Amino acid sequence: MPVPNPTPQPGRRKGSVWRTVQAVLWSLLGVRKGSEWQQDGAQVTPLQVIAVGLVALALFVLGLMALVHWLV
Question: Which of 8, 20, 30, 65 has the most beta carbons within 10 angstroms of its beta carbon?
Fold first, then answer.
């Protein structure tokens, strides 16, 4: 049985879900430090950003629909 290599491979990114959520939310606000933006680019994959962005968009639309339903 091969022993797993604890060091990450150079081409792989290690982005957490929370890091991706933070990156998407800060980008929606349009405010982000340059150093943080560079770290996001190095750690978060485009697929993670797309997935979290779609979930955020769905939650935003559902929130607007609930607000309109509550007001009307």
Answer: 20
